[in-house]
Amino acid sequence: MVCSTGRVIGFVALSAIAAECTIALASPPPAPAAEDWRNLRNGIVLPDEGYCDQPYVVITHDGNWLCTMTTGKGIEGQRGQHVVATISTDRGKTWSPLIDIEPADGPEASWAMPLLTPSGRVYVFYDYNGDRINTLGDRKDIRADMLGWYVYKYSDDHGRTWSKERYRLPVRMTPCDYENDFQGKVQMLWGIGKPVIAGDSVIFGFSKICKYLIERSEGWFFRSDNILTESDPAKIEWQMLPEGDIGLRSPTGGPIAEEQNLVVLSDGTLYTMYRTVEGHPCHAYSFDGGRTWTPPEFATYTPGGQRIKHPRACPRLWKTQNGKYLFWFHNNGGKDYERRNPAWISGGIERDGRIHWSQPEILLYDPEPTVRTSYPDLIEDQGRYWVTETQKEVARIHEIDASLLEGMWNQGTVKTLTQQGLAVSATSEQIASGKLAMPKIPLLRGVAGLTVELRFALNDISAGQVLLDSRDATGKGFVVKTADAAALRIELSDGSTTAFWDSDPGTIQTGRTHHVAIIVDAGPRIISYVIDGKLCDGGDARPYGWGRFSPHLLDINGDKEVRVGPTLKQAAKAIRIYTRALRTSEAIANYLSGE
What we know:
- The protein is mostly beta strands.
- The chain has two domains: 14-28 and 415-593, Jelly Rolls, CATH 2.60.120.200; 40-400, Neuraminidase (6 Propeller), CATH 2.120.10.10.
- It has seven helices and 41 strands.
- The longest helix is centred in the C-terminal third of the chain and has 10 residues, at 584-593.
- The two termini are 33 Å apart.
């Protein structure tokens, strides 16, 4: 990318270049309306009072969508924060005025989680500052949205009105409480996600805070075995799990283990995911309804496999109606609250009592890299999918292309070469000639893109060897070359703005046949590599496997021919160019095709 200084740099990580590239990154051109469904700005805005968080949806028995959320006229944690509901009768296109579950002028009420029962009753569980605690020692007006009680209300008219009475959950005292800043006189906690139904029981996760504000935390669960059949809310029975005095923690003993949410496997096994500050989420299984859990470990795509990368953000799980799974995360190894854009998604399937996660796809993004999106929910309605999300000041709902999800669930089984957008598929004679006709690449904006795909075995992987080159005399076009640390590099230029990105170190080996897809996605402005069926995620060498490119880089059409470098002429088994960005799943299918 070219900064305002005119110096060319690579996108190693956004934070590393923000200081020098403020102009280039902070002012992207607005995306055309409805051009890319993944663009956050093309979603439908949900009503709120200013601040808005955790927009979670259930489809009530009258066929409408009921969304509960936390809102307020201030910023997160300020006085007046409360929980509300809103109803859509047209699948999210329009929404009713906000309905107070708790009023803005009462104690702080936050982090609502709705549960739809078979009877049609809707419960909502949330934090409630029932003791009106707003001080800590000599500190005044502290954040109180995570202090106090855990409570629930209910609605028997599909969310239009809510019970006047609220019912308190029996939060068992544990060492985490006694060690907190209030010495246990006040409990600190919150929950994300929605309760799940496991057989005849309901269970949901929540996090206890052991040090204000959230400097140490651990995970717990509430389970009820009679909430689905008991009509009197006061008679609902609750167990706080796991048994014992210690909740779910980080496997390393790290201070943060929070935002536990879960799904139920086909045999009743519970599976939970939660965030840490160690660059990875944690996961664990319970085979006895939440009473005990497997030792928490950093989540992997497959048992014993590649670790999933994720910062201190909500790692959200869903089980879909087809019995498969989805996982929202951010695919980078950040260790703080930042880097929540784009949102990535992985598809899960059960094998031998465990969830196996697919290589991920970009689900949603904002053109401004510093925008953060999180706390999503999934809605399924008559075979269609929607996702809600929030940026704290605006919450939206987005319909998701079902083929993206199906592609992830089918990774490993689809082994056919993708034809859509295929503009160059070089024959052995064309490769030997050293020149291929170069197709016209659409301007890099909206849903446009480029994918360069190679299958080769190099005997020499020393850096600087040009493999493919479409640049003209002015430097416009792209070039693929070998890079340092046994990697590949793509460079893109419109003659004045340049970007480059390398694959992960060590991804290319001498004498081994590799399949490489270099994907330039103009929507989120991201370059990624899928090598031998695996999306580069940075590995142990860097927090990102993907890199951003400038919104000012648009026209990369160079020469009318693309030149095949002498090294690749001898080594290439296939060269393909697509005039669009392939999905991760498509690149994997191409790899498995063997072509």
